[in-house]
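Is this the right way to post structure tokens for a design question? Let me know if I should format differently. Anyway, here goes:
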């Protein structure tokens, strides 16, 4: 019970209500003390009227009047003259004097708490204003025992009433909390447990009820979104696992095919044809990269890329290789041109193969986007050196990325911008750049074209 939300709320409610009642109790007792003393003054004033009506009064009658008033003597000041109206022997010295003509709330509270804390019966003097302007002031002397007893009795009744109010309030709040919070939260926890048992099952995704307090509705909606995203991620992960297994099998056979092709290319290099001599080294490099990539897939057997081997890379030469490879892929009827703006002496610290793959993916995506328009365009690669990084930009004059592609730009299988695309190119490029400690970001996109920016942090060149 104490470990439940409703149980703790019940206890806290009782505590807080009792605290509130105590805060009410203190001024209430102070006000009761003031009323008690004012009542004694009023009774003393009534008792003194008998003396004002006649010059003489019997001693027995005087004692009876004082006893009924609950005081030892009564002093009435009229016309600036202080006159002892009724009197009887006082059993001890006057301990304190209290003026009730214009007391402040703090003074009343202080005096009331002091009286409750002092169990000894004392003699006090009380001064007040007579009723109906029957004089300037009235003063009585009385003992404190009856006052303290009456205050304690009143306080106990107040505390008993407070306890009843607390219990009733706590019970009502307990039931309200159970209906408004605890039951919906229990239902939410039940949905979470059922979903956790089979997160791949889309039928177990929680359907928000749309009822209850706003915070719980928001929690249900957030949980439903999280479950939907998690189910999609699990499915995506299963697809990636299946794809990885298939890629490993394909890579195994492709490596054998490329190895045979590499033997034929070695013979082609011995040709005397100038065109063949010019193209053969690039063909050799392409086959060597393909063989290395398939070997990496087989060696690691997973979607993660190996860490980069950082060396000094002549960026202009590498960019030229990328552009030449993509220029060969451009059909004769496609009006697509390439431009390079890379300082000839720029040397970056990177893994040459991985940087080549990153740039090749970006340039290939740009070429395919331009080819899809049927109108051609220009693809540019530029680079500059900043204080802390090398910056490489790949731009095109294409139609820009669609909204769907922007939402999942670097997510595998979801960031494809063209029909039939796998959506892996940008994801691979981003992962390779991150391996260098750098970033790949979309600079801008729109009808005027698209720009991707690679930032590679500087380091000590080896």
């Amino acid at each position: 019970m104490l470990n439940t939300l409703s149980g703790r709320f019940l206890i806290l409610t009782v505590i807080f209500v009792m605290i509130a009642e105590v805060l009410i109790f203190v001024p209430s007792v102070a006000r009761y003390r003031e009323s008690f003393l004012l009542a004694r003054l009023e009774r003393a004033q009534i008792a003194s009227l008998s003396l004002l009506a006649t010059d003489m009064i019997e001693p027995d009658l005087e004692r009876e009047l004082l006893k009924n008033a609950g005081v030892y003597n009564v002093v009435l000041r009229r016309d600036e003259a202080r006159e002892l109206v009724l009197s009887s022997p006082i059993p001890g010295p006057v301990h304190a004097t209290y003026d009730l003509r214009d007391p402040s709330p703090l003074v009343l509270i202080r005096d009331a708490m002091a009286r409750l804390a002092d169990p000894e019966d004392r003699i006090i003097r009380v001064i007040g204003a007579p009723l109906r302007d029957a004089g300037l002031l009235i003063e009585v002397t009385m003992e404190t025992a009856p006052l303290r007893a009456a205050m304690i009795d009143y306080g106990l009744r107040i505390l008993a009433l407070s306890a009843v109010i607390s219990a009733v309030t706590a019970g009502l709040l307990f039931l309200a909390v159970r209906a408004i919070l605890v039951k919906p939260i229990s239902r939410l926890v039940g949905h979470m447990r059922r979903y956790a048992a089979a997160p791949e099952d889309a039928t177990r995704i929680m359907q928000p009820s749309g009822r209850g307090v706003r915070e719980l509705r928001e929690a249900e909606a957030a949980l439903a979104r999280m479950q939907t995203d998690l189910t999609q991620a699990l499915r995506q992960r299963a697809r990636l696992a299946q794809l990885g297994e298939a890629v490993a099998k394909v890579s195994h056979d492709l490596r054998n095919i490329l190895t045979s092709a590499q033997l034929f290319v070695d013979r082609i290099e011995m040709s005397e044809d100038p065109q063949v001599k010019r193209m053969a080294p690039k063909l050799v490099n392409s086959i060597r990269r393909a063989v290395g990539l398939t070997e990496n897939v087989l060696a690691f057997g997973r979607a993660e890329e190996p860490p980069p081997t950082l060396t000094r890379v002549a960026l202009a030469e590498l960019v030229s290789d990328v552009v030449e490879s993509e220029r060969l892929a451009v059909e004769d009827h496609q009006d697509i041109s390439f431009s390079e703006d890379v300082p000839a002496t720029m040397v970056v610290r990177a893994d040459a193969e991985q940087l080549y793959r990153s740039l090749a993916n970006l340039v290939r995506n740009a070429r395919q986007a331009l080819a899809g328009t049927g109108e051609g365009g220009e693809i540019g690669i530029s680079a500059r050196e900043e204080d802390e990084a090398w910056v490489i930009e790949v731009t095109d004059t294409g139609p820009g990325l669609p909204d769907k592609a922007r939402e999942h730009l670097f997510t595998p299988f979801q960031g494809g911008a063209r029909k039939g695309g796998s959506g892996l190119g940008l994801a691979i490029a981003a992962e390779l750049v991150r391996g260098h400690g750098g970033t790949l970001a979309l600079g801008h996109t729109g009808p005027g074209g698209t720009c991707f920016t690679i930032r590679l942090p500087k380091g000590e060149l080896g």
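Format looks fine. Someone answered above. Worth noting: The chain has three domains: 5-169, 202-239, 305-457. The chain has a mean pLDDT of 79.
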